[in-house]
Write a structure and sequence with these properties.
mainly beta; four-stranded antiparallel sheet; 2% helix; 31% strand; Integrin_alpha_N; TAT_signal; Repeat domain-containing protein
């Protein structure tokens, strides 16, 4: 019996789980795999889609009389179907998954060879994990605000899965709550700061048409109806919210256009922005921007930028809409898939940085370690703003952004 580890899902089992796809008899005969109706997952006791056939369109924590009898399967649903060696979706002894099949196609002798439970999900990671990353933070001694979506003193995150669902994950419990679906239409998302004047941190998102939207937060981990900011934002390669950069008490937005100019859009506190100001040129060499808040201890929000060579730079904010001379944080940051700066994560009152790795990240000298969450604790000093990383969890794989 093939045993599959939790994190080896995509690489270790994808090829063998689908098995050998084959066509059965003509569709009009309605036998073999063609007998599986659209909208159902079917299993047969014979390994060539023969013998007795079961069908279901609902998850089955136990298989009843079909337990350990399934030798061929066909998935005619729009979901991914997880199959487990054990009952009740237990992953310990092995599991596999079946993507949707074309009519008349089946997997013969699919791994695992035995099936004692099956579950319908939207993404492959849900066979073994929640659809969001495992997130917990420590309560901060500073006033709730930056990074704290539900105003309970804990830094929270937003997580988008591959199916386009957006999840609110509170730092206090880690129990994610679904905000809604359809978020894969957004080509950029950023948060940090109250943009509507109610004292609650809001969300900004740009859709595929280039329209920018504000989603006003409720202060309870959800959002109200969105408000249109403006069009033409596809001209921007990078967009990040970084807090009050101008010192007027209103939170602002930074955007780098595709020619390399960095612009500051001053917040008004009324769901829109004032006339933009040019910060400077040459920013086309940056592959990521992140607004971490104040990292240097001077009460002014700062900016982090990664260049195409993998160097991470700190641009200290002046509080006047400009930045001081940059300092090098370190090299090798091309191993990071995403940055999410959500304020004070470890409860020491200083802002931190969290990242999720891509497959360039090395452990023990070996690359291929995607999906690790790393915590870089802030020092509150401009000379060495971030400490060495601490590996938090390796279960942040197959997500579509953490914010």
């Amino acid at each position: 019996m093939r045993r599959v580890g939790r994190r080896g899902l995509a690489a270790a089992v994808a090829g063998v789980l689908l098995g050998a796809l084959a066509a059965a008899v003509p569709a009009h005969a309605a036998t073999g795999a063609y007998a599986c109706p659209k909208g159902y997952f079917c299993g047969w006791t014979g390994d060539d889609a023969t013998g007795s056939m079961m069908k279901t369109n609902k998850s089955m924590p136990t298989m009843g009389s079909w337990d350990n009898r399934i030798l061929a399967v066909s998935n005619r649903t729009t979901s991914i179907v997880c199959r487990y060696v054990d009952a009740n979706y237990v992953v310990a002894d092995g599991y596999g998954y079946e993507r949707p099949d074309d009519p008349g196609a089946w997997s013969s002798n699919p791994a695992p060879a035995t099936t004692s439970s099956l579950k319908f999900v939207k993404t492959t990671r849900e066979c073994a994990e929640p659809p969001y990353g495992p997130w917990l933070s420590e309560k901060s001694p500073v006033k709730a605000g930056f990074g704290d979506i539900d105003r309970d003193g804990y830094a929270d995150v937003l997580s988008r899965d591959l199916a386009g669902r957006l999840w609110f994950v509170p730092g206090s419990t880690g129990a994610g709550r679904l905000i809604g679906g359809g978020w894969n239409s957004m080509t950029a998302m950023t948060r940090h700061g109250d943009l509507t004047g109610d004292g609650i941190e809001d969300l900004l998102a740009r859709d595929s048409a280039g329209d920018l939207w504000i989603y006003p937060a409720t202060g309870r981990g959800g959002y109200l109806s969105r408000r249109f900011v403006g069009g033409g934002w596809n001209a921007m390669a990078r967009v990040t919210a970084g807090g009050d950069l101008t010192g007027d008490g209103r939170n602002d937005l930074l955007a780098a256009d595709r020619s390399g100019k960095l612009w500051l859009y001053p917040g008004t506190g009324h769901s829109h922005f004032g006339a933009r100001r040019l910060v400077g040129g040459g920013w086309q060499v940056m592959s990521a921007l992140s607004g971490p808040g104040d990292l240097t201890g001077d009460k002014h929000p700062d900016l982090l930028a990664r260049d195409t060579s993998g160097k991470l730079w700190l641009y200290p904010g002046t509080g006047r809409g400009t930045f001081g001379a940059r300092t090098l944080i370190g090299t090798g940051w091309n191993a990071m898939e995403s940055f999410f700066a959500v304020g004070d994560t470890d409860g020491d009152g200083r802002n931190d940085l969290n990242t999720v790795t891509n497959d360039r990240y090395k452990i023990g000298g070996y690359a291929g370690n995607l999906g690790w969450q790393l915590l870089y604790r802030g020092t509150g000093s401009g000379k060495a703003a971030l400490r060495s990383p601490v590996q938090q969890s390796g279960e942040w794989w197959e997500l579509n952004g953490t914010f």
